[in-house]
Amino acid sequence: MDRSTQQRGHGRAALIVNTRSRSGERVFFRALDRLQELNVPLGATYPIRDPVRLPETVREVLSDGSGYETLILGGGDGSVSSVVDFLAHHHVTLGLLPLGTANDFARTLDIPSEVDGACDTVANGKVVDVDLGLAGDNYFVNVASVGLGVGATQALTPWAKKTIGALAYPVAAIKAFMTHEPFSARLVFPDGDHETVEHDRLLQVAVGNGKFYGGGMVVAPGSGIDDKSLDVYAIQLGRHRDMFGVARYLKSGDFIRNESVSQYRTTRVRLETDPELSVNIDGELVARTPQDFSVAGNALKVIVPQSSTAARRDHE
Question: Which domains does the chain have, with CATH numbers?
Answer without folding.
Answer: 3-124 (3.40.50.10330), 138-296 (2.60.200.40)
